[in-house]
Write a structure and sequence with these properties.
Layout: E1 2-9, E2 16-23, E3 34-40, E4 47-50, H1 52-60, E5 64-65, H2 67-76
Parallel strand pairs: 1-5
Antiparallel strand pairs: 1-2, 2-3, 3-4
């Protein structure tokens, strides 16, 4: 099953996240299928960039969004 979820980047105590489509069995920061955007919680206001058309394409193919990604994307609308 494909999940759309966050993958953590950045150094210690300086998180930066990618929004990725990944196999649900892959580790959080492991192999992924496609980068769909990014999220930077450290800036004010928070920076969120999402390729909405690619997310919709993956969802139409059966991918499921994680809870946090669902909340982040809902703030865009």
């Amino acid at each position: 099953m494909v999940k759309i979820r966050l993958s953590r980047l950045g150094s210690k105590k300086r998180p930066f996240y990618r929004i990725v489509a990944a196999d649900s069995r892959s580790p959080r920061d492991g192999k992924f299928l496609e980068i769909l955007g990014y999220y930077d919680p450290r800036t004010t206001p928070h920076v969120l960039e999402v390729k909405k058309d690619r997310v919709d394409d993956w969802v139409s193919k059966g991918a499921q969004k994680s809870g946090r990604v669902e909340k982040l994307i809902s703030t865009l609308s």
